[in-house]
Design brief:
Strand content: 5-15%
Radius of gyration: 19 Å
Strand order of the largest sheet: 8-7-5-6-9
Number of strands: 9
Structural class: alpha/beta
Largest sheet: 5 strands, parallel
Distance between the termini: 43 Å
Shape: globular
Number of helices: 11
Helix content: 40-55%
Length: 291
């Protein structure tokens, strides 16, 4: 470890310790994984998720798959403030105890909070208890994997017997080659671009309006997913921003010890999907937008 890295780690640890001692002005509360999953199974609220990427964009930084814009930054700030009662906001459970995560994840979040804590303190609603964004990252980061089987089984029940509309990037392939979505009554898909999907938000929204209000929308569309979720929610749909859940599920079913690439996440276009044998997936695709 070089000296710069060492000093950064020490400062991040000091900052985190002060926060846990209650010296920060806003103590942010987050539901447990089990509480979050139970709400999603038994409740009817929609969900928007924030991870480190969304917080970085609020700080004005572009992401690999989405260029920053002032309107995106302002929209994310507003969503993080928990504006809508029926739209729950999920953030990482990192403000109280990091001991449940593996070593590199603990250090990652300490570093993240060192640079981004002011974003949470400024824009989070400290009168609310947030939900747990790790619902879509339920495996890799956890040191103790003993609860992962139970979490995975319960997560699959969220869409049991529901007509699911998956809105995802062309590389995502939620549930393709695994049983993640097998408990759904039906699955159809709207495919958008893997990068800068925000530019096509209106077109994607128009397509989503073609589906009945009792549909359950599962959205994996990067930053654009936050705004699509809100728009659909305001029009009476139930929408869950599930992010990279499929990637996490693949690592879980393969007992991955590191973040391994998933073949299907490199497959694009009709011809490549046919070659990969994803006929069921292609049959579920109803519309391709921005491709």
């Amino acid at each position: 470890m070089n000296m710069k890295r060492f000093i950064k780690d020490i400062l991040a640890q000091i900052d985190y310790s002060f926060y846990r001692m209650g010296l920060k002005k806003c103590y942010i509360k987050v539901h447990t994984m089990d509480e979050t999953i139970e709400e999603l199974i038994h409740g009817d609220k929609s969900m928007v998720r924030f991870g480190d990427g969304e917080i970085s964009m609020i700080r004005g930084r572009s992401l690999q798959l989405q260029q920053v814009k002032p309107e995106i930054m302002e929209g994310l700030k507003r969503l993080l403030s928990y504006e809508h009662e029926g739209l729950i906001v999920a953030i990482p459970e990192i403000f109280d105890d990091l001991s449940l995560y593996r070593k590199e994840s603990r250090q990652f979040w300490k570093d993240h909070l060192f640079f981004s804590r002011k974003v949470y303190e400024k824009y989070c609603n400290c009168d609310k208890t947030y939900y747990n964004a790790y619902v879509s990252r339920f495996y890799y980061a956890f040191d103790d994997k003993s609860l992962c089987d139970d979490w995975a089984a319960k997560i699959r029940r969220i869409w049991k017997d529901k007509n699911v509309v998956v809105v995802e990037g062309e590389r995502t392939h939620n549930g393709v080659g695994n049983d993640l979505l097998d408990m759904a009554k039906s699955v159809v898909r709207i495919i958008g671009p893997s990068s800068n999907a925000y530019e096509y938000l209106d077109d994607i929204m128009d397509e989503c309006r073609n589906y009945p209000k009792d549909s359950l929308f599962l959205v994996s569309l990067g930053i654009a997913a936050k705004f699509l979720t809100e728009k659909l929610f305001l029009e009476g749909y139930r929408v869950l921003d599930i992010g990279n859940l499929d990637m996490e599920y693949e690592w879980y079913i393969h007992h991955s010890e590191k973040k391994e690439p998933i073949f299907k996440h490199s497959v694009t276009g009709v011809e490549e999907n046919e070659k990969a044998g994803y006929q069921q997936y292609l049959g579920q695709v109803q519309k391709r937008i921005g491709l």
